[in-house]
Amino acid sequence: EREREREVTATAIAMDVVRSGWLVKRSHRRGRFGAHNWQARFFVLQPHRLAYWESEQQYFDSQQPNATAKPKRVIDVSSIVAIEGVRDDAFDKPNIFQVVHGDGVLYACCSSNPLQQEWANIIRRQCIRRGNDMHRFYHPGVFTGKLWTCCSIRKPESIGCKQTFDYTDMRMEGAEARECLDTLQLQNQTAHTVPTESQLMAQLRAIVEAALSQAEKHNPDPVFPDPTWQTKVLAGGCVCVLLVFETAAAHLCYGTVVNLQWWFALTVFLVIFGSPP
Question: What's the rounded mean pLDDT across residues 171-200?
Answer without folding.
Answer: 70
